[in-house]
Amino acid sequence: MTHGDDAHATLKAGALYLVLAAVLWQHAWTGGPSSTLASGSLDPAQDVWWLAWVPHALAHGLDPLRTRAMFAPAGVNVLANTSFVLPSLVLWPVTALFGPVLSFNVAVTLAPVLDALGAFAVARRYVRWAPSAWVAGLVYGFGPFVATDLRFGHLNLTLLVVPPLLLLALDEVLVRQRRPAWAAGAMVGALVVAEFFVSVEMLALTVVMVVVGLAAVVVGAPRWMRPRAAYAGRALGWAVAISSVVLAYPTWWYLDGPRHFTGAVWGDMARFAASLSSFVVPHGQLAGVTFLTGGNGDYVGPTLLVIVVAGAVALRRRPPVALAGALALAAAVMALWWPLLHLPLLDSVAASRFGAFVDLFAAVVLAVVLDTVHRATVEGAVGPGREHRARALALAVVAVGPLALVPPWPYPTRSLSEPTVWRSAAVRSLPPGAVVREYPPAQSDLGDELVWQAEASMAYATVDGYAIVPGPDGRATIRPPDDVMDEIFAAFALGRARAPFAPSLVAAVAGHAWDHRAAAVVVELHASGGPLAAALLTEALGPPAERDTSGVVWRAPLLSAAAGAGSSRGPRAGAGSARAAPAARGRSTGPPAR
What we know:
With about 600 residues, the protein is of the alpha+beta class. Helix content is about 55%, strand content about 5%. It is elongated, with a radius of gyration of 27 Å.
């Protein structure tokens, strides 16, 4: 096969994957990609926010690894969250030209395409028949693991092109050894760095699989490995050195930088493991896994499972099949039970996410099986013309068909309609970076307030947000710090507040509305509890600065007084805040912890 033939096959495969991805996201592209977002979760809005943050930070000379635009004034450690710094940087031109919502839709459309092309490239190295490699890419890029998470964005989990590229780089290090050792090692190191800035969690799982794979090669084929060991050692040494130097500071920032935290935000991660039924039943996942990923990402399907197991046994003398089969089995075992769960740095790993590697290695085995069947029918002269492909294609359909049972295709979306109050003069005239307190809180519904902030190019900061931050004890939480106004707003969002308002509640709002140097309070009237919240604020703070049919804005007294003088600072909490009634400071004014 010539290089030109291989490039043509890759372009053709990519085009087919892109068409499939566009079909899956057809509602986003036909409904207006700048105003349509994946539905059903807060996470797509958070992804939009991350896509906007990195370009904003770099364009304004801010630290992209820490943001105070959310959970102001303390802020958020970006690296320690589910952010994806590298994709945000790559998509900067799209975000700048068309906005972060369209950038999100581009990202989620391209993610499975890139993943599938990565698996296609791996399989293509071991098979002659391009369609068998294309099916392998389909299993990995559009298989259950990616498909179930992709409906909610989750770019840190679904942009998985690095693992297959790392397999290709390690194939160069261990098998082909055609390049200088430093060059081969540099490729591995660069891919490790890239994955760090996509997803630290998936990098950790990738490293585990690489270690398991290296151990399998050394133990399983010592004679074959012995003459290659010196080159491999030098190359891996270069990889470790390069990645260690580049990632030293980011790793420190992740582990011990500002606003770092300890522990897992979702508590005992042992409950987020696969079950035996999850591999063969489309919706046989555990309840915790459903919550974490939005579906059964560990599903393999009975037909694919039988074909991969039978193929791995029948073709076990072929090294790629033997190694891929062993690694698929190892990944499945770790998806069921993650033995290193209680070690530091690994206690936040969701075992079920090893399902991504089950898909990858099962795809490689399937590709070789299909290629073998195809070559056998050709060599056996089964019919003229295209008829010799029939058996292999039929086997591919039988293997892959059940995978379509897991996710809801095409993905559901919803239309976005920004309340006009966010574009009112009272909000637009705030000083850059001014802190805004908003109702409803970002976590109370679908996180649209995060989208409005991102679409406004982070012109203001918010007291609330949706990210992982340290709680009072330093452990991970997604709750804002204990705050009187947050508790009061939560009561309205949950329907627990009623008029007329108690004097103590009115006093609490008057005393705490401007905490955290808030410069404005914005209430969206269409939100559940919005009119009641507006009525309380009017009683406590007086007439608003601006009001329209979509919302109401109050401006901080100190900011309003300084506006004529061109003040660029938000107000500090005044003495009235410190003198608020003790009962108003307690949690008795609001609902239980969310």
